[in-house]
């Protein structure tokens, strides 16, 4: 089990998330895809911190912050999504088109 | 293959498999569950990296938040409507872009092979004291971020007004 | 245990936070009719913090946690800018909030929180802190954009903003994680010394830098990461649009400038070309697409994108003079000029509820002062003399040319010419086309007063820029020693 | 009067600017007061310009009335003003045309306040360019002179109906502004390049003059200056804004724009291009003189084909500016002096032309020369003045145009004889269309529609009489002007020859 294992995993997770952001139309699912990308970030941070950083701590600290903010982001984004859903009855981003993208 | 490596592959498979499920599922509820699974598997990976505290944070906060999201979604909307999922016509483009990014990242990682050190536990105390001294300022700012998210979520999602 | 650091250095941020909490608390106590008072209180509070900061912090050179938080002229310059903009935007919003929003307390409170975020962004010399501060700003803006809950356009803008914002943050963070992996540090000065020690840039770091530039590119709305801006500008409540186009942009540039000047200076060859291309494409696309716009807020959105292109030149041509030029143009264009334009748009919208460019027909007869002020703002944006835009553009372009980018400056000047065309189309509506509704528009005294101040500032910067430039030079010296 | 002399040039720029500022705060519902105030400002400008001319007269040439203050040390920009023998006549020109234009605007009833504010900003720009010795301020005022044009034409201008299509005033305004700003962009690039090349210390013309740019640099950037300023001078093929813009513009604006503003272009080529890039000037002048000749001939031929009286004058401006460009391009003392004198002469003449067209249009509401017939029977003064302007335009001896054009022709014959011939042919074509026009419009049988036509009002007659006076005066006594011009032209040409 080496650093490269984690890096490749993180790269794969990031790419899957990126694909999701670009391919999905449902706002909730776009949000989830972004969370996958953030997880890829965390895998990177923790792995780099563990394998490379002599202090070993900074990677984890960074990851904690990312987790906290990401969780808050899910909550806030969902509140907005719900509001849109109530006003418009849809959460598909390409049907939300009062203004062109 | 060492046992840890076997565990790594298992967790990696779960992480990626459920991630793919998240981005391809036709049902939002399944997607939430897959995301949850993926998050938990990543927490397992953190344990492999001897970052147990972080694994705990990941499960409690992150996965917790996602569960709340799930409940939220189920409670406030009718499932069958929320679950009506279709994808963009631009899926092939998305696939190409994501594939290219993956290729670039892996190519870059293969050419980056620094000397690594032994994995070692990081005490929760060390992490905590670091968090509250050296990183006190971002920590406080992060609490404001949470406050803003909370206020915002309430103001925006709260029923009422001219509905 | 080391000695307790000097937390007193944080007092401006703490005061604004306290003010925000106070406003939120008062919101529960003050009866509904007196909500305007919250706006005035917030504005007065920010002005007070501004005065105190300028009085006590100018010229200080101190830092907390070895550069994690810096008190220097650069950060103070931007803090003053944010406090001024915050004050103006809050005062601009009061009427609008009265008429259109249900939650004044939260509105002002969140604006104040975002000011805290921006202040930390300008003051930090470390990536994690920068990221968290950026998130405080972004979260506040997500909420502010969507805060008109019953307006579907506002909801829609909020949704798009939060999704694209989160996406760009993910790119930025992945870039940061790679940078941390390769260099093992996150403080700007450490990054700089590590980069200096490397003989060649390894590909992982290069990918990381590219992702960071892409993520920041989203935040400043540089092409090709700009597509969110027009929709969000159009859909957001108008005072929030003003805030977005001015403050968030300034904050992002504060961060970008310090990051590139302090942390990435040793690797300048790796990213300068990327930024040059980004700048050229951004200004050209912004200006060309602006020509086709019918909505005044979208027009300003695209014109802002174009101006981001000009500002990016200042980053690409990184030097003391380039940084001066960037800051100068940021103040001249973004702060004074855009704010003035938005005061007019808000005043017009409050009275008529309209915001299409064709709705401005005959404004010269209906509200001569508004028409004159908007013309001054548009001429300033186009870079015509007597107005701030002329002097700041001249300075910025000259500074960029000095670093050997004369061809880029040529492109920028041609762009400037293109922009004149669509600004003139707005002026044509106001002065030449007849009004469909000839009734006179009354402008409330508060907005007139703000507008008068801003127009005077536009002219003052245009013809007597020396005092402002001296402050800017002092700010630049904090990040780029002469 | 040393206090006045020490601040004369700042004052001469400040007067119209201050007038504009003061007018902004005038109550809009007092149109008479606004008109009177504007006239006072115009006359004060005239007074100052005459004073400048008269005081400079006793000096030995070179830059006089210097003032200089630092403004932006970081880039080496300062407020530095001075005039030499080339600029003084142009300041006098501006001082004469401004009040004439203001008096001719007595019938502006729509938003007179805004009109005069913009007009004065325009003149501030013009005077600023003439006095500035700092390239930043030169450019600043150059752009300032363009800024008010869009509104001046768009709000107070008039559209032309060609039967099959309409040239709207908005079109003319937009075209003019975009062309001129496009030209200024080229100039701007060149200015910045010179600043960088000269060591990034100063935008001061006199400092840059000593920088001795490399021949390659000069060859590369002179065309930018030449074309950039040339656009405003009506240089072919970038002249098309000029007829469209001048025709759409209200009378006073056409007078100032064709009379004075176009001279900024030629002045810019001289002051920035020839002074700072002498080697480039030598290399590129053969090209400029060809274009200038095309201007003369092409402008004259185009004027011949027009039916709209104002378009005739518009194209004749293009043609006459060609003489200025030709003269400059000879790089020969007589030619260049002739060019500067032509700037003055054409400025007065074309202002008079546009004033006359304004008077006629105001009475008849027609500008079609096939319809206008025998007007001098009813409009004697107008007809007489038109004859003076027309004869100046075709170069009759005794009027200012003759002196200027003969100098240009001599200069051209000495350097490019073939082009000199073409220039003379251009003058001949001018004679044809002007004489034909005068015969038809003024001296034919009186058209039935025009039986009850009133002549020019007293105020108009007065304003135009001043212009006529200068045409005759300079025609009879050109030497006071030429004396000033010759000294500094000689200095300039020595510098170019030494490059």
What is the overall shape of chain A?
Answer: elongated
Percent of residues of chain A in beta strands?
Answer: under 5%
Give the oligomeric state of the chains in this entry, treating copies of one chain as homo and distinct chains as hetero.
Answer: heterotetramer
Fourth-tier CATH superfamily name of the largest domain in chain B = NADH-ubiquinone/plastoquinone oxidoreductase chain 6, subunit NuoJ
Query: How many strand segments of chain B?
Result: 0
CATH topology of chain A: Helix Hairpins
Overall geometry of chain B comes to globular
User: Cα-atom Rg of chain B, whole angstroms?
Assistant: 20 Å
CATH architecture label of chain A: Orthogonal Bundle
| CATH class placement of chain A | Mainly Alpha
Summarize the amount of helix of chain A as a percent range: over 70%
- CATH fold description of the largest domain in chain B: Four Helix Bundle (Hemerythrin (Met), subunit A)
For the record, the CATH class of the largest domain in chain B is Mainly Alpha
Coarse structural class of chain B: mainly alpha
Task: Please state roughly what percent of the residues of chain B sit in beta strands, choosing from under 5%, 5-15%, 15-25%, 25-35%, 35-45% or over 45%.
Answer: under 5%
As residue ranges, the low-confidence spans of chain B are none
Return the structural class of chain A: mainly alpha
The poorly predicted ranges of chain A are none
| Cα separation of the termini of chain B | 61 Å
The radius of gyration computed from the alpha-carbon positions of chain A, rounded to a whole number of angstroms, is 17 Å
What does it look like?
The complex is a heterotetramer of chains A (101), B (163), C (482) and D (499). Chain A is mainly α. Chain A has a single domain, classed as Helix Hairpins (Orthogonal Bundle). Chain A is 76% helix and 0% strand. In chain A, helix 2 (27-51) packs antiparallel against helix 3. With 163 residues, chain B is mainly alpha-helical. Chain B has two domains: 1-83, Four Helix Bundle (Hemerythrin (Met), subunit A), CATH 1.20.120; 122-163. Chain D has helices at residues 2-6, 8-24, 31-57, 87-104, 112-131, 135-146, 149-156, 169-197, 205-209, 215-233, 241-248, 251-276, 278-304, 309-330, 333-364, 380-394, 400-415, 417-441, 458-476, 479-498, and strands at residues 64-72, 77-83, 160-161, 166-167. In chain D, the strands form two sheets. Chain D has a two-stranded antiparallel sheet. In chain D, strands 3-4 form a two-stranded antiparallel ribbon. Chains in contact: A-B, A-C, B-C, C-D. Chain A binds chain C through residues 10, 14, 17, 21, 27, 30-31, 34, 37-38, 40-41, 44-45, 48-49, 52-54, 58-59, 61-62, 65-66, 69, 72-73, 76-77, 80-81, 83-84, 87-88, 93, 96, 98-101, and chain C through 128, 131-132, 135, 139, 142-143, 146, 149-150, 152-153, 155-160, 162-163, 166-167, 169-171, 173-174, 176-178, 180-181, 184, 186, 227, 230-231, 234-235.
């Amino acid at each position: 089990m080496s650093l490269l294992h984690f890096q490749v995993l993180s790269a794969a997770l990031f790419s899957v998330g990126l694909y999701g952001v670009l391919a999905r139309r449902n706002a909730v699912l776009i949000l989830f895809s972004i969370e996958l990308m953030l997880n890829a970030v965390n895998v990177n941070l923790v792995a780099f911190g563990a394998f490379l950083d002599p202090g070993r701590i900074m990677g984890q600290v960074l990851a904690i912050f990312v987790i906290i903010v990401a969780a808050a982001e899910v909550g806030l984004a969902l509140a907005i999504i719900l509001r849109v859903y109530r006003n418009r009855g849809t959460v598909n981003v390409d049907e939300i088109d009062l203004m062109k993208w | 293959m060492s046992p840890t490596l076997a565990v790594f592959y298992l967790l990696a498979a779960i992480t990626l498999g459920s991630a793919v499920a998240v981005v391809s599922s036709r049902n939002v509820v399944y997607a939430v569950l897959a995301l949850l699974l993926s998050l938990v598997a990543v927490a397992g990976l953190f344990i492999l990296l001897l970052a147990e505290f972080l694994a705990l944070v990941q499960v409690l906060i992150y996965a917790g938040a996602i569960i709340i999201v799930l409940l939220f979604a189920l409670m406030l909307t009718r499932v069958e409507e929320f679950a009506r999922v279709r994808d963009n016509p631009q899926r092939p483009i998305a696939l190409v872009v994501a594939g290219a990014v993956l290729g670039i990242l892996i190519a870059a990682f293969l050419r980056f092979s620094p000397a690594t050190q032994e994995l070692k536990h990081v005490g929760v105390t060390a992490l905590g004291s670091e968090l509250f001294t050296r990183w006190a300022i971002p920590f406080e700012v992060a609490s404001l971020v949470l406050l803003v998210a909370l206020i915002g979520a309430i103001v925006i999602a709260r029923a009422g007004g001219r509905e | 245990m080391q000695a307790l650091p000097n937390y007193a250095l944080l007092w401006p941020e703490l005061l604004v936070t306290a003010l925000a909490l106070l406003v939120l608390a008062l919101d529960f106590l003050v009866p509904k009719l007196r909500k305007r008072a919250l706006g005035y209180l917030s504005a007065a509070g920010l002005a007070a913090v501004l005065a105190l900061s300028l009085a006590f912090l100018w010229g200080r050179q101190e830092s907390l946690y070895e550069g994690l938080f810096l008190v220097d002229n650069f950060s103070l310059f931007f803090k003053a800018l944010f406090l001024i903009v915050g004050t103006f935007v809050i005062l601009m919003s009061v009427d609008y909030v009265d008429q259109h929003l249900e939650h004044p307390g939260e509105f002002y409170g969140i604006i104040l929180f975002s000011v805290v975020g921006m202040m930390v962004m300008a003051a930090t010399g470390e990536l994690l802190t920068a990221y968290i501060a950026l998130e405080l700003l972004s979260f506040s803006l997500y909420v502010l954009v969507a805060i008109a809950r019953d307006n579907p356009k506002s909801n829609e803008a909020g949704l798009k903003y939060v999704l694209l914002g989160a996406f760009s943050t993910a790119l930025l963070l992945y870039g940061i994680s790679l940078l941390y992996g390769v260099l093992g540090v996150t403080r700007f000065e450490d990054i700089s010394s590590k980069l200096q020690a490397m003989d060649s840039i390894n590909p992982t770091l290069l990918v990381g830098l590219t992702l960071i530039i892409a993520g920041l590119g989203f935040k400043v709305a540089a092409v090709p990461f700009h597509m969110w801006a027009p929709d969000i500008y159009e859909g957001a409540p108008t005072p929030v649009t003003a805030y977005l186009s001015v403050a968030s942009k300034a904050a992002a540039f504060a961060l970008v400038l310090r990051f590139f000047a302090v942390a990435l200076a040793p690797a300048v060859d790796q990213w300068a070309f990327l930024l040059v291309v980004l700048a050229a494409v951004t200004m050209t696309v912004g200006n060309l697409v602006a020509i086709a716009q019918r909505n005044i807020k979208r027009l300003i959105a695209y014109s802002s994108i174009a101006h981001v292109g000009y500002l990016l030149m200042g980053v690409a041509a990184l030097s003391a003079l380039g940084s001066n030029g960037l800051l100068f143009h940021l103040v001249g264009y973004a702060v004074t000029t855009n704010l003035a334009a938005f005061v007019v748009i808000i005043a017009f919208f409050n009275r008529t509820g309209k915001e299409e460019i064709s709705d401005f027909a005959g404004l010269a007869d209906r509200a001569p002062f508004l028409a004159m002020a908007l013309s001054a703002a548009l001429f300033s944006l186009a870079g015509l003399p007597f107005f701030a835009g002329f002097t700041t553009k001249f300075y910025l372009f000259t500074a960029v040319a000095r670093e050997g980018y004369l061809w880029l400056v040529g492109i920028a000047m041609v762009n400037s010419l293109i922009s004149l065309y669509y600004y003139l189309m707005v002026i044509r509506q106001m002065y030449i086309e007849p009004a469909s509704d000839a009734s006179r528009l009354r402008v409330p005294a508060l907005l007139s007063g703000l507008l008068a101040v801003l127009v005077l500032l536009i002219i003052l910067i245009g013809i007597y820029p020396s005092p402002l430039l001296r402050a800017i030079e002092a700010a630049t010296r904090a990040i780029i020693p002469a | 009067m040393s206090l006045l002399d020490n601040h004369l040039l700042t004052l001469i720029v400040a007067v119209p600017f201050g007038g504009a500022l003061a007018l902004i705060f005038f109550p809009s519902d007092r149109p008479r007061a606004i008109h009177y105030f504007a006239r006072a400002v115009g006359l004060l400008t005239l007074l100052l310009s005459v004073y400048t001319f008269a005081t400079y007269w006793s000096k030995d040439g070179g830059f006089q009335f210097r003032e200089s203050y630092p403004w932006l040390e970081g880039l080496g920009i300062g407020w530095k003003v001075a005039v030499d023998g080339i600029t003084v006549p142009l300041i006098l020109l501006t001082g004469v045309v401004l009040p004439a234009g203001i008096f001719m605007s007595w019938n502006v009833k729509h938003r007179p306040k805004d009109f005069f504010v913009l007009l004065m900003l325009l003149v501030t720009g013009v005077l600023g360019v003439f006095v500035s010795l700092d390239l930043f301020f030169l450019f600043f005022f150059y752009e300032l002179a363009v800024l008010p044009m869009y509104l001046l034409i768009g709000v107070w201008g008039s559209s032309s109906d060609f039967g099959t299509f309409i040239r709207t005033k908005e079109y003319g305004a937009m075209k003019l502004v975009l062309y001129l700003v496009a030209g200024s962009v080229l100039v701007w690039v060149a200015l910045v390049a010179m600043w960088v090349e000269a060591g990034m210390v100063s935008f001061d013309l006199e400092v840059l003059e000593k920088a001795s740019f490399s021949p390659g640099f000069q060859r590369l950037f002179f065309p930018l200056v030449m074309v950039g300023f040339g656009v405003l001078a009506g240089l072919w093929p970038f002249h098309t804004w000029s007829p469209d813009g001048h025709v759409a513009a209200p009378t006073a604006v056409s007078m100032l724009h064709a009379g004075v503003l176009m001279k900024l272009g030629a002045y810019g080529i001289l002051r920035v291009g020839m002074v700072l890039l002498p080697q480039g000037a030598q290399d590129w002048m053969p090209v400029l003189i060809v274009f200038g000749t095309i201007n003369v001939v092409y402008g004259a031929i185009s004027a011949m084909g027009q039916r709209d009286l104002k378009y005739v004058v518009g194209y004749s401006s293009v043609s006459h500016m060609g003489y200025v460009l030709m003269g400059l391009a000879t790089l020969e003392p007589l030619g260049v002096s002739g060019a500067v004198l032509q700037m003055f002469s054409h400025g007065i003449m074309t202002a008079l032309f546009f004033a006359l067209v304004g008077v006629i249009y105001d009475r008849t509401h027609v500008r079609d020369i096939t319809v206008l017939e025998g007007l001098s029977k009813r409009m004697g003064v107008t007809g007489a003045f038109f004859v003076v302007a027309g004869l100046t335009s075709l170069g009759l001896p005794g009027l200012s145009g003759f002196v200027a054009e003969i100098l240009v022709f001599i200069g051209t014959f000495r350097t490019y004889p073939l082009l000199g011939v073409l220039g003379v042919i251009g003058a001949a074509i001018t004679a044809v269309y002007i004489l034909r026009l005068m015969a038809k419009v003024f001296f034919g049988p009186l058209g039935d529609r025009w039986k009850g036509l009133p002549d020019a009002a007293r105020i108009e007659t007065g304003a135009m009489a001043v212009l006529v006076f200068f045409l005759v005066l300079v025609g009879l006594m050109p030497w006071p002007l030429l004396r000033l011009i010759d000294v500094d032209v000689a200095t300039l040409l020595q510098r170019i020859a030494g490059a």
